[in-house]
Amino acid sequence: FWYDEPAPANRVLSPPVAPYWWAIAIAAFGDRPLLWKLWFFPFVWLLVFCVRRLAEQLAPGLGSALLCVALISPAILPAFNLMLDLPALALATASLGLLLAPGERERPWTWALLPGLVCGLALQTKYTALLPFVAGLVTLAIAREGRAVLAAGAMAALVFLGWEASVVARYGESHFLNAVALSGRFTQPSSGQWLIAYGSLLGASSVGLLPVALRVCGVRRAGRVTVGALILLAFAAIAGLPADRLPDLKGSFDQPAAIRIETWILGAIAALVVVSNGLALRRGLASGPGIRLGRACSATADRAARLDLFVLVWLMIEVCGLLLMSPFPALRRM
Length: 334
Fold this sequence. Notes:
By secondary structure, the chain is mainly alpha-helical. The chain is built from 15 helices and 2 strands. It has helices at 17-29, 33-39, 41-58, 63-71, 85-99, 113-123, 130-142, 146-171, 175-183, 191-205, 209-216, 221-240, 261-286, 289-295, 303-325; strands spanning 245-249, 257-260. A two-stranded antiparallel sheet has the order 1-2.
């Protein structure tokens, strides 16, 4: 009963780790959703610990603040409602944290087997958990940590393929291949619909980046306050204005749809976020980190240079994964 009617487990877009973990709570506590959510608390703790530690590495002194912003964001907070994303994020972040842990160069290459093992479990929780792990592997490869990359990748592949092989041996079919086939059955939106959907999601979720970007760009406090006030008025307009329909964009995911007032407002906010953060990134790279990025490819690169490179690689991989691996737009996929 994963959906509205009984279905074989291999026909459900859910790898085994989270359902098996959940099944223990159902067997132990019965039909008690509150206790089910408490049963997932180890994943909550792991996610909190790993996000804070990773945030401290990327922005020393801001770990707690970034942790709070991340956990209450619309991209993560809904995952606490018994979704696959919570354990997947926890395990993926743990594998990434192990790959990039301080002092990894002083450890033997066999240490990389542990993050590979954790990544294998993350992949059997949700297949998109591969993306941050790949970003970590690419960063290590650029830093000439070839043996660690091979060890971690091989262990992750062993765990993932080992489970798939056991499923094929027992049931005659692969859950992963079935998931790929099922994903292909979703109605594929046009490029215009993708732009509208993700533009709206970006405008609604990333507005908090504006003050930081505007400050980096040198905008004075009065200007930032003015922009903030306009944003508040925009969200008030979304809640208060009638949903009059504007000119239709032909076609949609399920039926003909129209561009509503909120789509234009959120799209304008998204454009402002993208432009301001692009200018902030350009200004920041011109003031020093760009030089560090160039140094990161050398064998003697310092840790700060490698972390700058990692953030850039991770962002590019996540964007590609968003476009290639998401069967439908959803904020948790951004």
